[in-house]
Amino acid sequence: MASQNMLLSAIPDEVFGRLGRFMTAQDLTSGLVLHRPGQPIHDVYFPLDCLISVTVTMLDGHTAEVGVLGNREMAGVNAFMGGRTTNQTGYVAQVPGAAVRMEAGPLLDEFDHNKPFRDVMLRYTQAYIAQLSQNVACNRRHSVSQRLARWLLESRDGIQSEDLSLTQEFIGQMLGSPRPVVSEAAARLQESGLIRYGRKAIRIVDSPGLEAVSCECYRVIRDEYDRLLGGRGASLPV
Length: 238
Known about the structure:
The chain has 9 helices and 10 strands.
């Protein structure tokens, strides 16, 4: 695999060896629905060089994007958190690419009976909760330009590429800002020589500069994931 998932890399070798036979490599196309609200989770996904949207469906049927998962995360955390059915949460492939799919049953069995593996998954949950909490503070305290820079950097890290196939509509949904506001913020970043953007794609041309104008949240969350999940590399199934 050209890239690998931080969470898979943190799984102990012995456990990874047992779970490997339940894993398959899968290419995800943009818009592919991986899990619908209200359905049991039968498979979990570990992104490698794709991005998976976390969506919430409201009672009136409207759907909102509330998060994005990249190569340090997994889709389907409910599989080991005591309830394999989600109420309003769904998962949809946003940026196409490769992922590792694994059956949820063996993962839950390992979680229930293996403390080292359980510790890894709980550390991941701690990092993910920290990210969600930081997002709330970020949305309240930081400008659209700062949050856009942060989100582009996190997307870059999530797929290990400076080229991001992201529409301005989707970025606006993620930032909770109207498209004209996002366009204005993107134009400022482009005028500063940090990015080049079009209607359906953005290229980061100055990563250090983009990090300099990003809010502190990018570094806080990156360091928290590294602290909790940094570890060995894993040879992923092909």
